[in-house]
Amino acid sequence: MEIEKLKKELRTARRKISGMAMLDELTGIYNRRYFMEALERERSRAERHGEVLSLCMMDLDLFKRVNDKLGHTAGDLVLADMGRIIREWSRQTDLPCRYEGEKFAVILPETALEGARVACERLRRMVEENRVQWRTGPIRITVSIGITQNRTGVKDSIRNLIDRADGALNQAQETGRNRVKVRNGG
Questions:
Q1: Most C-beta atoms within 10 A of its C-beta, which of 12, 46, 114, 184?
Q2: How many CB atoms lie within 10 A of CB 28?
Q3: Domain assignment of residue 37, given as a range
Q4: How many domains are contained in the chain?
Q5: How many Å apart are CA 1 and CA 161, to the nearest integer?
Q6: pLDDT tens for each residue of 56-100
Q7: What phi and psi, each to the nearest 5 degrees, are found at residue 79?
Q8: CATH number of the domain that 18 lies in?
Q9: Among the listed residues 162, 52, 183, the one whose alpha carbon sits nearest the alpha carbon of residue 104
Q10: Active-site residue numbers?
């Protein structure tokens, strides 16, 4: 009985370690390492089956101001809340992650650009309408989002997908923030 108990504890510990290796502790969504593996897997699958795949990159607008004015504890609260919003917004088949700092990414399998744009616009509104409760008053944050999709019939690298989504994100930020921009093609 003691051996069975130890085996069960070992299985539980392995599951916990596996989850820790995949998830960002603060936001509760996947981490960048898992995201890169998943993006390669989903890109290959979409290419093999001739399916579309959209990639969304998002950045919290002027997030540095939150950390500078209210402190990193408030910033962490905002990031954790963004993770919650993304989890509530995303479908079961989507793969959301914390890409770095205040930057997030979501893989939308079997989703064309227009569907991704509509979904991301809904997420943008959810973030804009949300208020994070803080001791000095509610914190309002907005998000800029860039979207691209794989090009069927073209062997797209994950680097190309990320660069195009990043380019669309940069365009969203440069044209006023709190918006969704789409970039297709090379």
A1: 46
A2: 14
A3: 2-182
A4: 1
A5: 52
A6: 999 999 999 999 999 999 999 999 999 999 999 999 999 999 999
A7: -65, -45
A8: 3.30.70.270
A9: 162
A10: 102
